């Protein structure tokens, strides 16, 4: 990225509500962690790196151990959504969805 283009920023959501009080909400995106699977059409990653005074990797443990939706946005691009969830969480949610579909 060059200096004239703003770095994309991350915004965290749970149950459709932006977590505006979380310290990392709105910070510049540095990168993604490992792909952990899909829930429906949503790609899930185990962490997201944000720019702080020291670059920091955030996992679902930074959000009370619960998965969150992450919106990545910059003025030049449309918003992109993904989930921050561990492999265990992805497996559990997918199993719950299969169970619901079977009933």
Structure, described:
The chain is of the alpha+beta class and 103 residues long. The chain has 1 helix and 9 strands. It has one helix at residues 87-102; strands spanning 9-14, 17-18, 29-32, 35-39, 42-45, 48-50, 56-58, 68-74, 77-84. The strands form 2 sheets. A 6-stranded mixed β-sheet has the order 2-1-8-9-5-4, covered by helices on one side. Strands 3-6-7 form a 3-stranded antiparallel β-sheet, with no helix packed on it. The radius of gyration is 15 Å and the shape is elongated. The relative contact order is 0.23. The model has no long low-confidence stretch (mean pLDDT 91).
Q: Which class of secondary structure composition applies to the elements?
A: alpha+beta
Percent range for β-strand residues: 35-45%
Describe the largest sheet.
Answer: 6 strands, mixed
Rg from alpha-carbon coordinates: 15 Å
Q: Roughly how many Å apart are the termini?
A: 50 Å
Number of helices: 1
Main features:
single chain; 103 residues; alpha+beta; 3-stranded antiparallel β-sheet; 16% helix; elongated
């Amino acid at each position: 990225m060059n200096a004239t283009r703003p770095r994309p920023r991350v915004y965290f959501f749970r149950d459709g509500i932006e977590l505006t009080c979380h310290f990392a909400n709105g910070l510049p995106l540095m990168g993604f962690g490992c792909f952990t699977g899909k829930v429906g059409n949503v790609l899930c990653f185990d962490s997201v790196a944000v720019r702080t005074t020291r670059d920091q990797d955030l996992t679902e443990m930074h959000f009370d151990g619960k998965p969150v939706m992450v919106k990545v946005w910059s003025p030049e691009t449309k918003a992109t959504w993904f989930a921050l969830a561990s492999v265990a969480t992805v497996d559990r949610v997918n199993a719950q969805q299969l169970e619901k579909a079977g009933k």
